[in-house]
Amino acid sequence: MDTDSDATPPTTTEGRLALIDSVLALPYPAGEESEDNGVRSSGPGHHLLILRASQDFWDDRSPELVEPAEQEIEDEFSVLATALSRRWGEPETVDLWPYLEGDEDGVRAAVPEPMGQLCNLAGSMQVWRVPGGTRWLGLSVGQADPEFPIWLMAAVGETSILPG
Q: 140: exposed, middle or buried (C-beta count within 10 Å: 0-12, 13-18, 19+)?
């Protein structure tokens, strides 16, 4: 995902759900690619979307600016999670921190995508296993660094990479 992107994600909940639905139907590409001006990246076995982005915080990281932005993203996360739970039932929580850990020598194993990108942006995600197939949909909120925008993200991947 492009942290410097000026791309515009969908502006409504309905638009975000439509984008999720369209990406769930897309085949996975053979190689890594980024489309929609940085709003979507895809590769073998995954898609990753920015559904909503706050402003960036390069000039001002004060709590008066950051906290309302965090709340807006969290509120939209809740709205989308409720809509997706109505469709597919309650999600499971997937902890992303273990994907950052290395072995005893500190060597990090190859991490399948989209987990490799997500674990650098968020600590966990809510996951729904999409009925009738081998895909899952995850929602998470993350941020590359304190000065970057806060992102509401959706990820699609193969169920074989999920824990348990």
A: buried
Task: Give 5's pLDDT tier (boundaries 50, 70, 90).
Answer: very low
Match 């970057």 to its residue by tokens. 148
Distance CA(24)–CA(131), nearest Å, equals 12
pLDDT band at 102, cuts 50/70/90?
A: low
Which helix (H) or strand (E) segment is 40 a member of?
A: strand 40-43
- With contact defined as beta carbons under 8 Å apart, do 156 and 136 qualify? yes
Are the C-beta atoms of 16 and 50 separated by less than 8 Å?
A: no
Choose among 51, 134, 137, 135: nearest CA to 94: 137
Contact 68, 19 (CB under 8 A): no
Rounded distance between C-alpha atoms, residue 156 and residue 46, angstroms: 5
Question: Three-state SS for 70?
Answer: helix
C-alpha 9/C-alpha 7 separation (Å) is: 6
Q: What digits encode the pLDDT tens for the residues 45-94?
A: 999 999 999 999 999 999 999 999 999 999 999 999 999 999 999 999 99
Rg (CA), the chain: 16
